[in-house]
């Protein structure tokens, strides 16, 4: 059955190759292993050892665990723990960024520098750090320490909340869900959800919202801002995507995982003339870097490093036989890579202090010796190049433009001297743009790879809805050619006019999953710009994770809900679908309290319908008009022009 596993013909050919040659992949394993019927709907509790208790049977709502826990309590505790685990992943990443900034400012982190001073000042401002009459190093040390307070906070609330619209802050405070500190809220989630503590589903889930906010308005926001300070705020850059970015005649190093701290150093080490000479001495024509997952997004956004694909491409890249080293750090790294890499010559290199894989080569990363370690990793890859056997790199590549930040978007919309979101707000008010859809998140082999992302993206832009993306969703669009100005051919007339006039594509790649914080910032800027209400909940906007699989996605979904956004998760069934009570709490219940709600909707057409209804509802509430086409003249913006404008805007 062609294309039954993926929307991408290149991935499909690799899956077929794997099947023919007897290699297992996530695609084949997902087929062989059906989801556990008890766990899939949130009905299994394993939080103490009187159990595990399974809420299965007739009259489900009357069942109870050995401790008497009701099914709704069990589902709520499960959801809260998943959300906290997701928030922990993003936030722990952010913490390491803050420590790296501090060490950089002290001159102790090898290879790093404070690249974007403007961003340092902006970050200092919201963190309450004084900038006048101080060196950038002094400021950066205080910025790092103030950022680390976001983790340490025991009372009060995290400082980043002050970046949200005033109205939103009031809602959080009145509900008592303004988070105190990342570490506190996550520890408290574990405490509350253990045997015998918080047993009121609604109460548990309000705390889950609070914990999720330590991700979006805490750890992720800091990760994004410090990433920009150390490596530069993204501006439009052209690059390539898909397995064809691997090169037959060069040493291929694939960076995979999440934190830019290591991958940025590998970019440096791989472009070092000595490394390139060394590669040539081994018979290669050079060193070729490519990324997978969000590490790919980090180095794509800032350095234009090509992406070999999203989550489900990780095994497929090794199946080409052309990857000399796959370098991984944390999150979304499949253990299966290890076994698979031994069938080829690929060296799987783990690097994080937090993550080892049995059988893989471990070269431990340390920011104090970052560049030396990166050079050692690059050398290890080069030394492995002569061991490469027959390789088969599938042909076919797509172009893309990535590298959008809220800073850049406001330059584009307002011009260098009047940077603002006015033009976007006006376009929405006039109805040329109906609204905004954030389409983000993972791949999941239980749905067709990229299908949900690409189907929804095309349908939204054709309905004059601007699409913003992050994570593996953005790479799905890239592989389908949707991250170029050429994607305007699929856009509705209103959206097309605006994009052409301003010089942005209709689908905007905002970065990795921690960069979902950029979406929060954009939403806030739109609110403060005026004309679209006084809260994020007033915006005609939706958030969608069509193919989610990671706990991080649930955390992201929850903090968007807490910020007032209608969030839809697609693909599979609801992980708390067994409990009508919990389903009611996270939809109607949350909507009444925070204005946002979380729905699990497997049918993509239903997602589209519900999203458009929601956008129309919000437009009506704001009394926005509809648009008369033909007001503006068409001007076609080439990718080159787009990249040039980006350069100019940021070099003012
Ligand atoms: Ni996000 Fe990124 Fe991809 Fe999902 Fe994994 S890489 S942090 S979790 S799979 S989008
Ligand atoms: Fe069972 Fe209660 Fe223990 Fe959960 S906490 S495993 S429901 S006894």
Structural domain tally: 3
Which architecture of the largest domain does the CATH hierarchy give at level 2?
A: 3-Layer(aba) Sandwich
Q: What's the CATH topology name of the largest domain?
A: Rossmann fold
Number of strands: 16
User: Which oligomerization state do the chains in this entry correspond to?
Assistant: single chain
SSE blueprint:
Blueprint: H1 9-21, H2 26-32, E1 44-45, E2 53-54, H3 71-105, H4 117-127, H5 136-152, H6 166-175, H7 182-193, H8 201-231, E3 237-241, E4 251-256, H9 260-270, H10 273-281, E5 287-292, H11 293-303, E6 307-309, H12 314-319, E7 325-328, H13 336-343, E8 347-350, E9 361-362, H14 370-384, E10 398-402, H15 406-414, H16 422-430, E11 435-439, H17 451-462, E12 465-469, H18 471-479, H19 493-502, E13 507-509, H20 516-529, E14 541-545, H21 551-562, E15 566-569, H22 580-594, E16 597-600, H23 604-621, H24 639-650
Parallel strand pairs: 4-5, 4-7, 5-6, 7-8, 8-9, 11-12, 11-14, 12-13, 14-15, 15-16
Antiparallel strand pairs: 1-2, 3-10
Iron/sulfur cluster binds at residues 45-48, 50-53, 65-67, 69, 74, 195.
């Amino acid at each position: 059955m062609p294309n039954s596993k993926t929307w991408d013909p290149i991935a499909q050919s690799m899956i077929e190759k794997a099947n023919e040659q007897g290699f297992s992949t996530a695609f084949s394993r997902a087929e062989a292993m059906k989801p556990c019927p008890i766990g899939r709907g949130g009905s299994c509790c394993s939080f103490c050892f009187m159990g595990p208790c399974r809420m299965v049977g007739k009259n489900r709502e009357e069942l109870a665990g050995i401790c008497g826990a009701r099914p709704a309590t069990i589902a709520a505790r499960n959801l809260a723990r998943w959300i906290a685990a997701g928030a922990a992943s993003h936030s722990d990443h952010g913490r390491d960024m803050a420590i790296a900034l501090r060490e950089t400012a002290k001159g102790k982190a090898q290879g790093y520098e404070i690249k974007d001073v403007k961003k340092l000042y902006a970050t200092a401002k919201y963190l309450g750090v004084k900038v006048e009459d101080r060196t950038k190093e002094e400021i950066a040390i205080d910025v790092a320490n103030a950022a680390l307070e976001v983790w340490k906070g025991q009372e009060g609330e995290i400082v980043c909340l002050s970046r949200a619209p005033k109205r939103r802050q009031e809602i959080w405070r009145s509900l008592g869900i303004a988070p105190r500190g990342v570490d506190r809220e996550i520890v408290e989630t574990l405490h509350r959800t253990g045997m015998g503590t918080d047993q009121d589903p609604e109460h548990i889930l309000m705390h889950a919202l609070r914990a999720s906010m330590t991700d979006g308005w805490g750890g992720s926001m800091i990760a994004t801002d410090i990433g920009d300070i150390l490596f530069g705020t993204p501006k439009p850059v052209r690059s390539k995507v898909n397995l064809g970015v691997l090169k037959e005649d060069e040493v291929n190093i694939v960076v995979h995982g999440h934190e830019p701290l290591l991958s940025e150093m590998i970019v440096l080490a791989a472009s070092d003339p000595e490394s390139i000479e060394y590669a040539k001495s081994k018979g290669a024509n050079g060193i070729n870097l490519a990324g997978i997952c969000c590490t790919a997004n980090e180095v794509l956004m800032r350095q234009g490093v090509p992406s070999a694909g999203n989550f489900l491409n990780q095994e497929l890249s090794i199946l080409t036989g052309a990857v000399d080293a796959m370098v991984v750090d944390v999150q979304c790294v499949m253990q299966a890579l290890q076994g698979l890499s031994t069938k080829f010559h690929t060296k799987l290199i783990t690097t994080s202090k937090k993550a080892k894989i049995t059988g893989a080569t471990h070269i431990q990363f340390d920011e104090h010796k970052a560049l030396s370690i990166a050079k050692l990793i690059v050398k290890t890859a080069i030394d492995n190049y002569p061991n490469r056997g027959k390789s088969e790199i599938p042909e076919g590549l797509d172009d893309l433009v990535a590298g959008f930040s809220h800073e850049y978007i406001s330059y584009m919309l307002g011009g260098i001297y009047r940077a603002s979101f006015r033009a976007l707000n006006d376009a929405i008010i006039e109805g040329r743009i109906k609204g905004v859809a954030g389409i983000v998140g993972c791949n999941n082999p239980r749905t067709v790879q990229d299908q949900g992302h690409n189907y929804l993206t095309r349908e939204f832009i054709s309905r004059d809805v601007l699409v913003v993306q992050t994570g593996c969703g953005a790479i799905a669009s890239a592989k389908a050619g949707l991250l170029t100005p050429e994607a305007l051919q699929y856009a509705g007339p209103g959206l097309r006019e605006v994009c052409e006039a301003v010089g942005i594509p209709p689908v905007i790649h905002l970065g990795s999953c921690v960069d979902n914080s950029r979406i929060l910032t954009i939403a806030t800027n739109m609110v403060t710009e005026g004309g679209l209400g006084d809260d994020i909940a007033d915006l005609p906007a939706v958030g969608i994770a069509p193919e989610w699989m990671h706990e991080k996605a649930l955390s992201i979904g929850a903090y968007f809900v807490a910020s007032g956004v209608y969030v839809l998760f697609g693909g599979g069934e609801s992980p708390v679908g067994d409990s009508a009570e919990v389903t009611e709490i996270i939809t109607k219940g949350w909507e009444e309290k925070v204005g946002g709600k979380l729905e699990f909707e497997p049918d993509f057409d239903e997602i589209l319908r519900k999203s458009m209804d929601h956008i129309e509802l919000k437009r009506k509430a704001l009394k926005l008009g509809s648009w008369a086409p033909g007001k503006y003249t068409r001007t076609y913006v080439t990718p080159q022009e787009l990249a040039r404008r980006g350069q100019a805007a940021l070099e003012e």
